[in-house]
Amino acid sequence: MSSALSRRTLLQAAVFTAAAPAIGIALPPPAAAAAPLAAAAPALPAPSAWTVRPFALQDVALGTGLFADKRQLMLDHARGYDVDRLLQVFRANAGLATGDAVAPGGWEGLDGEANGNLRGHYTGHFLTMLSQAYASTGDTAHADKIRHMVGVLNDVREALRHEPRMLAVPGKFGTGQDNVRGSYQYVDLPGTVLGTGTALTLSAWIRPTHADNWARVADFGNDTTRYLYLAARDANGVPRFAVSTNGPGGEQSLTGSAPLPLNQWSHLAVTLGGNTGTLYVNGTAVARNTSMSLTPAALGTLAHHWLGRSHFASDPVFAGAFDEFNLWSRALTAAEITSLQSRRAPETTAGRGNLASYDFFETTGGTFTDASGRGLHATLRRTWGAPSHPGFLAAYPETQFIELESMTTGNYTKVWAPYYTAHKILRGLLDAHLATGDARALDLASGLCDWMHSRLSKLPAATLQRMWGIFSSGEFGGIVEAIVDVHALTGKAEHLALARLFDLNRLIDACAANTDVLDGLHANQHIPIFTGYARLYDATGQDRYLTAAKNFWDMVIPHRMYGIGGTSQGEFWKARDVIAGTISATTAETCCAYNLLKLSRTLFFHDQNPKYMDYYERALYNQILGSKQDRADAEKPLVTYLIGLSPGHVRDYTPKQGTTCCEGTGMESATKYQDSVYFARADGRALYVNLYSPSTLTWAERGVTVTQKTDYPREQGTTLTIGGSTAAFDLKLRVPAWATAGFRVTVNGAAAGGTPTPGSYLTLSRTWTAGDVVRVSIPFRLRVEKALDDPSLQTLFHGPVNLIGRHSSTTYLPARLYRNAALSGDLLPSLTPVAGKPLHYTLDGVEFAPFHEGTTDPTHAYVRRTEPRLVFGGTDSGVANPVRADGTSLLDEIWSAAPFASKDALVNRVRTTLNSWVSAGLLSRADGEKALTTAQNASYVA
């Protein structure tokens, strides 16, 4: 997400999400399968195009270990957070009471970044998190929150479908009309209310709730040229009255001396007459101007007479309450103004206003009675009118969607990704329905799609293409995927047509043709698009969608991928294969990794290429786990936004002003860690074990359970125990691409057949019975991965675990790793284990630890590889390590042939390599002999 620069057919139960976890899914049973267990939540058959299918979250229980520990931190946050704070902005937009709830702020409040133009998105994320938490744990506290949130959102939509209605609150004397901040409501008075006299008194009781400068108590005028207004606060925060027939430069004004207190009733009055104007605050004259010649007579007939709204579009709507508003066609005396302080106007010597008098005694409806005798009744309205369709639901007016249609360049202070926010809300509602079966959530989701179709289907194709190509403002996230899911539920042709209205043809066509156009694009604006296009392939069968998604994936991975699995620099992509050249404090936006995981698993459903799950392991075990701080907090989820990979970077788990996109996706990630551990082939005849993680799978369609016990990645292997019914199927065990030696499998103690190949799946075909035990051994080796554009800049991996240095230096740490390399090629013997701390090592006094540990230590994700001399088995030959023009050193060439079966095999490699370099004139014969002798005399770890 960029900052600068998610009823018609309720008989169908729920939606299965392709790239989001399957909260509810129905896998078709194979011919001889046992009857499926009762579904715990609504489910929908997976797309026929998928050759493998995921399991629902409730079918995979996490066991004790790293993932369960991380998840518990987020579950604690989910339980402790007051969701009425999230709902505050929705209630406010609909003019409903918000109680004592305070919006979270940051991206979820009117005072946050870009005026809170993204507000509402976080509520969708939170709904998804709660839905996943409930599906995973069965904790009804999460379900209760879901139902509460859905109920409020339903009330909000219903309120938006109607004209605004009075929100009665205790007033100064009776009841008052509350204008909730963010409601954009004002009181519209009839056109003749002001009159055309030469004298005037305006009197109002107000209770401001927010210190908004230029918020109007009253504004009568035609435009920004001819008007009369009373503001609760001017630019200096004090009351101001002004009248003009020539705009701001021609104003005759009265300015107060002190700000009005917030959340307290204050009385404002202005008298005009005989060229004198007086401003009163709580009965005291605070300003007098004896040169005020402009009166209602000079203004003439005006077009608008508003309470709470300004004719200047950039001014805020008044936030607070009104009580008793009166207009007189004469200038009241100071004594009469004083009498208004303690009694209602009709009980004073001033009497009711003869031009207009509103008590605001009404408690329902949207019409306020004029008690002056003139019958000029007022009406409560919204500044933006009404939604264009009854399905509209948002935490702000429809104006952002409208303005986007005419934009040509992005400006997030005016329009910030409204369809992105709509996606988060839509996705959250779908997931809420999946988790709880709440039909209201599905109806809200379907209505949202109806509204979007009604709006977008009217636009020319060229307008849509322009909109979706605009940076930030035109961002729409994963909305295509969510709409396809809605269509799968409703069967409405309009919903599928809506999904296709988000086609960004220039990007689809380029990627389908395998033309890399990613340089300069905002990364997270485009990654989730392709998950949606893959789902459009499922719905339409059009190959261009799936081809584009596959090619796009290959353009990012590995060409724009950091070792942890992340991508983007300053949220954008740079040129292909530039890694070292982009490393900074603003690399690897966390949302990018989240969305690449969704895309990877979606592509795997169509094509079981192991590269997708190799990437899944990389990003999940490193960036995603490491993005969550290892402590709980009721207020914040403690998730990174950007993960800097520059030397000495310290992760920020409370980014920006809070409630960012990455905190939202971070909440989701931490409640669905088990979503891709196991997949089943569509015909039920194979089970894929993609990730090694402590967990228990309930494969209801086969009547089988699989319990995986491991402390992976602190343990180099796992044990799977089969339970339940006897069943014949292929067990497919992923052989990680990095597992280049020693991957072994036993079944009930006997070696399994087949040859494990790194970057593939090892298939075990048999009839499985309860009690069968599969033991998988996956020896880890320390290896390096080189930056594509600078081979000397490297990141360390021990098996799947990225090891990072912890040091305050802001320059790259040097790393010498060949000094004690093992015959296997494992570089780990050059490091020293830290006692009592699994996966922690030291190198030249610097501690290296797993990236997945969510600490605030300064870190080094990349090191500068330095091998100055030829060292073998810990013995330094004293000979410099020569380097070819392409950057390859002599030691690189020797060790590229690892593993070595024996010391003799290594020495032979050393001899032939030395001879080659001597012959090429890159090394003297004497130095070659000295290095060979050192290699022959050294001892090596096997």
Structure summarized in a few sentences:
With 942 residues, the protein is of the alpha+beta class. The chain contains 21 helices and 41 strands. Strand 27 (744-747) and strand 28 (750-751) form a beta hairpin.
What features would you highlight for this structure?
942 residues, alpha+beta, nine-stranded mixed beta sheet, disordered N terminus
Strand % is 15-25%
Report the count of strand segments: 41
Number of helices: 21
Q: End-to-end span in angstroms?
A: 48 Å
SS content category: alpha+beta
Rg estimate, integer Å = 34 Å
Describe this structure in words.
There is one protein chain. It is built from 21 helices and 41 strands. The chain is an alpha+beta fold and 942 residues long. The strands form seven sheets. Strands 31, 32, 33, 34, 35, 36, 37, 38 and 39 form a nine-stranded mixed beta sheet that branches. Strands 5, 6, 8, 13, 14, 15, 17 and 18 form an eight-stranded antiparallel beta sheet that branches. Strands 12-11-10-9-16-7-20-19 form an eight-stranded antiparallel beta sheet, with no helix packed on it.
